[in-house]
Amino acid sequence: MIGALLLALAAAAAPEPTYVVERVVTMNGTVTRVSVFRNGVAVLARRRAGEAENLVRQPLSEVEIKVVTQVVEECYPELARFGTVGDTPGPGRVELRVAPPGRDPLLIRYAVTAAPSLALSRLTQALDGLEARLVATRVTRDDLSMWEPVVGDRVELEDGRIVEVLSVVPNPDSVVVHVQVGGGPATFFITDNELRRLAVRRVAK
Q1: Rounded CA gap, 205 and 164, in Å?
Q2: Is the pTM of this model over 0.70?
Q3: Are strands 106-111 and 92-98 parallel, antiparallel or unpaired?
Q4: How far apart are CA 186 and CA 162, in angstroms?
Q5: Residue 39 CB neighbour total at 10 angstroms
Q6: Is the pLDDT of residue 129 over 80?
Q7: What pLDDT score was predicted for residue 9?
Q8: What pLDDT, in 10s, does the model give residues 167-203?
Q9: Looking at residues 126-153, what average pLDDT do you find?
Q10: CA dihedral 86, 56, 131, 19 (to 10 degrees)
Q11: What's the confidence (pLDDT) of residue 84?
Q12: Residues facing 57 on adjacent strands
């Protein structure tokens, strides 16, 4: 019975992506991530080896999020054909994650030096413009790498949501955390590692 519950929780720990598009570029020891979330928040996170991660979070206008979503939706069919090419040799690599509403999430990996397709070029241009907008302002996120979630903990996520830990259930592969969004009825399950990745800072009760 307990095993079945843990399996059910583990399955529930992979909710629908909250992002529309996310690009992670790893080059010369620096990891730069640009994310556009479905609630209209854009995030730029940059981490250099040996330094704290710099984070910029900015809400987009209704028109801006509509434009980004439209570009992603129009590029999606060609990106789906492009597929995932696995590990990429060379000085740098890119991971592109796209998840327009109503479509299956895609993960595409390619070398920084790869010749992109037309759709990839178009989406890259849009993300480059967004990154340039965000790069001027930076803040440093809290170091939550050693944080172990317990019931009652509250954290702020990258997309601006405040979540509270309702329960923590260990299973053989990871720890599944059940969280409540704000003071409303919405809840979801997430692994502790993913929660640490998305959390920006602890929030006082």
Answers
A1: 9
A2: no
A3: antiparallel
A4: 11
A5: 14
A6: yes
A7: 47
A8: 999 888 889 999 999 878 889 999 999 899 889 889 9
A9: 83
A10: 50
A11: 54
A12: 43
Give the mean pLDDT of 71-98.
79
* pLDDT averaged over every residue in the chain: 83
- 200: Cβ contacts below 8 Å, ≥ 6 apart: 55, 57, 141, 142, 155, 156, 157, 158
Amino acid at 99: A
Place of tokens 């996170």: 45
Task: Compute the radius of gyration of the chain from its Cα atoms.
Answer: 18
Q: Quote the tokens at residue 17.
A: 């992506």
Write the DSSP string, the chain: -HHHHHHHHHHHTSPPPSEEEEEEEEETTEEEEEEEETTSEEEEEEEETTSPPEEEEEEPPHHHHHHHHHHHHHHHHHHHHH----S--SSEEEEEEE--TTS--EEEEEETTS---HHHHHHHHHHHHHHHHHTT--EE----TT----TT-EEEETTS-EEEEEEEEE-SS-EEEEEEETTSS-EEEEEHHHHHHHEEEE---
Q: Give the residue with greater pLDDT, 103 vs 2.
A: 103
Highest mean pLDDT among 47-51, 114-118, 175-179: 175-179
